[in-house]
Sequence to fold (745 residues):
Amino acid sequence: MTEQMNGAQALVRSLEAEGVDVLFGYPGGVALPIFDALYDSKQIRSVLPRHEQGAVHMADGYARATGRCGVALVTSGPGASNTITGIANAYMDSIPMVVFTAQVATAVIGTDAFQEIDITGITVPITKHNYLVKDAKELPEIIKEAFHIATTGRPGPVLVDVPVDISKAEIDFDYPEIVNLPGYKPTFRGHGKQVKQAVTLIKEANKPLLYVGGGVIASEGSKELKELAELMQIPVVTTMMGKGSFPEDHHLWIGMPGMHGAKYTNYAITETDLLIAVGVRFDDRVTGKLATFANKAKIIHVDVDPAEIGKNKEADVPIVGDAKNVLAGMVAELRKTGAEPITQGWVALVDRWRKQFPLHYSPEEGALHPQYVVQRVSELTADRETIIATEVGQNQMWACQFYTLRHPRSWISSGGLGTMGFGLPAAIGAQAGRPDALVIDIAGDGSIQMNSQEFATAAINGFPVKVIILNNGYLGMVRQWQELFYGRRYSSSVLPQDCPDFVKLAEAYGCLGLRVTDPSELDAALKKAFDHDGPAIVDCRVVGEECVYPMVAPGASIDEMLGGIPGCPVSEMLDDGTLEEVWE
Amino acid sequence: MMKHTLSVVVENKPGVLTRVTSLFARRGFNIDSLAVGTTEDPTMSRITIVCSAADTPIEQITKQVYKLINVIKVQDLDPIDSVERELVLFKINAAPERRHEIIEIANVFRAKIVDVGRNSVTIEATGATDKIDAMEDLFRAYGIKEMARTGKIALSRGREG
Ligand SMILES: Cc1ncc(C[n+]2csc(CCOP(=O)(O)OP(=O)(O)O)c2C)c(N)n1
Ligand SMILES: [Mg+2]
Fold:
């Protein structure tokens, strides 16, 4: 059944057919036909951000919190170019998203028309795919393909550029049921023989370790991961992108690896004899010096993207497939062939390191430490459905280290791109998708100023996000590198703690603003913010010159860590009689 | 570092060549030569790319190219198992008294004289890259005024007949 309508109406109808319930859109000249068509949609709520970068991060946060595809819509020219950081961020973290950019009329494309920009050209390296619509009749088919490509295989952002004459052209609308993409057939099911081979290695291993990342979240594979870990008693490390895929209060969870990983986590990677890498890409922030990363281990590498396997580290058993599917296959094969959990010695050894080298900081009487703030946020939200977003910098790392996550899709943080200013709009997007959750952005005083215009979006649209600013008066992570590697020359990294006055800023937007300067005030302020029915900002004036420890210096091996509780390298430790005892 | 010949079959759609070449640039691969044209199926084009890289990186770029939505097939052609050709035009300095020598060289290589000017001859030749390289080398002695090479095209050999 076809129906006559214009391209803009067909676009909106296509979004409805895809089940879109909210989009983040900022209008402008050539986008007006589409916004006009949206005005009639009963299904789609259109949220107006205050900057197009905000729109894309909102779509991103929505996608991370719900698992559904995020949607943003902007005008041509500057509207389109303002989306670039947001798109790159989603691309680096493999987040499913469709971004619509309006474009000048097809007749004037290529003439430097007013607000013309070659957005498909610009976004080739930061999208999974993109389209410039040249024939209105193709619009429904292109939208169908865009959603399909964004959400299947390794997810990612897809951009659709829609010239204004296409939006106005009359077409017969009929939304296609199937896509026809001869060059796009992602492998979903892991190869049976490879899965069997992996299982053989798992059974032979003495010190296996699951190293899991965003792929487990994207594939909704947490249940299967837990089954495998518990069945074989294999400890689990989750990368920053994989946080929440395994409950962090579980005895088999042993932290986040890498540059700011705990010592016990990095030691476990250095010491494992079988690294089961699932939905991870051996990023440099995780591996440190590649040559020494997990160099006592055989490696099983599971990823839906064949290009990730062998990119940074050679795999002994490569498995191309969806993480959930492959994990389920491993569990089934282990059950079928009779699996014995590994000896308790390995888990006991890791536990021993955990006690010996815990994440820690040195509290001073009366001083408000950023780690303490995160700890209290964690404890006060333990029994509520909570989503944690973060900004970038020390705030993000302390959130990684001191917040205890329990569920997948409860962690929203910019990984690959490390985008300051991501947290607030992403939290708003998450709240739009999960209205009942308590959504908290753990922020830095620098990052929050990169998209603080979105406080208006939160206030006006009733998104009661809570922003906890770890206000240290510095671009703290930059200052930390300057302290450690540039002789404490704090070049361009100092921010006055009282400018802006975040309490007044909150009030200017109609949000609740609170300030905490003393640890004794913290709980009351946090509770007040969490119970407030609108957005709230808590300006925590924390100790300024705190560092995130432990730390692996750039280019060093991950078992060579600065700071934290002093301890010897693993190999020596294993020669230590008492630890051998634990192992036996 | 070895020279690899990648044969990439793509959907014949606008912008596809840009996607492929920008991927090479972004991943840090130099393209030595590139030739594009249609295939037996008018909806498909074949891009033949020659690039120098070690084996592991070539596998990586092959996988990355294959991920492009409009790419149907990527082959890293084995030189022994494929036929390769390149077309070249040389415009060579040729005073009348030296013309003869140049034409003789061209004949040895089974090249064709396609144009003769008062002080130059233009020669067309096809062949595998090393043959073209050898000709170029010889003609340099006379002075090559201009040269245009198409870049290599290649197909895997048909074993099934
Ligand atoms: C858009 C952007 N610009 C610059 C950086 C580099 N950078 C990383 S962390 C950081 C400091 C962040 O400061 P703040 O938000 O106050 O967080 P803190 O480290 O103090 O917790 C900077 C400048 C970045 N990641 N993103
Ligand atoms: Mg700061």
